[in-house]
């Protein structure tokens, strides 16, 4: 779960709790006010009925002042927009507690043909207090929303920072991060840009050095091969040929790795089937004796990738099988969107990661030409394509598999 999702869920929970508290507080206050007014109205109604029965306007007026009651004019109009919440009949008459359109509580006394509609003026203060509490809660909610938006604004650059770091990590060394003000994020972007520039300069310098060394070595190696061919047979000629071939192969593999590091972000993706990939790989392997390779195709399938790089990867697996297999032919098996290169031999002692390290070779590699770079190249190519590279050792077979799922 991303940090933005967690923050949004936390905001929703906080907002829901605030709204719930607001509603419960409002209902609780309303209930309390209603209960107190009901008690006061019922208590006052007995005295007011007595004054009405005695027909004493002066005493009635004084009583109303004592209870802070206000007599409402135009009672009929008020009664039309009010609802009854309590009714009680007594020997004096009828008592009703009403709620008007504004939510205020009224007391209606009916005695014979007379009626008296009053309102407790002190309830205004209670309702004012209730409104203040409600406004404060909504102000709290508003502040919560503002804080949430501010946090989002502060965290939003993290998405762009993460995206830039991912692109840079995939090999786009020219990518730089835009500056996010003068705060901590701005300092972070400046630090990253400075670091990225240094890394780019170092890597480009290394790439140029390796390319230059590789190309410079090609010319003297070619001349050495030509000179050996022109010399007569001698006991040291085969040793020199082998040494020069090894240097030539090492130079080629180092240049292959360098080209991968420099250009892997620019894959030429096309669609082709598994048979095309195998055919291209076998042609690169330059196998003179076709009986050394046995091909089993149970079901062909389509692949989307860079045919050039994938054929290099499969060719390296074929070369390894031919070099290290103790019994020929080797087997290339195609099924379930997987191409496996199998060779007879004792089960390999280490996990696949060990053999994918540059210059890593197993014990059975002694006396066999090679520098342990082949599987490292395979791993780089497969990882960039997003495919899988597996090793299984079973029943005397070592199988390196490319899975295109």
How would you describe what is shown here?
With about 400 residues, the protein is α+β, with helices and mostly antiparallel strands. The protein folds into three domains: about 5-125, no CATH class; about 185-265, Helix Hairpins, CATH 1.10.287; about 270-405, Histidine kinase-like ATPase, C-terminal domain (Heat Shock Protein 90), CATH 3.30.565. Helices cover about 60% and strands about 15% of the residues. The chain contains ten helices and twelve strands. The chain has helices spanning about 5-55, 55-65, 75-80, 125-170, 185-230, 235-265, 275-285, 305-325, 350-355, 375-385; strands spanning about 70, 85-90, 95-100, 105-110, 115-120, 270-275, 295, 300-305, 330-335, 340-345, 390-395, 395-405. The strands form three sheets. The chain has a five-stranded antiparallel beta sheet with strand order 1-5-4-3-2. The protein has a five-stranded mixed beta sheet with strand order 7-9-10-12-11. The longest helix is centred in the N-terminal third of the chain and has 52 residues, at about 5-55. The model is unreliable at about 360-370 (pLDDT under 50).
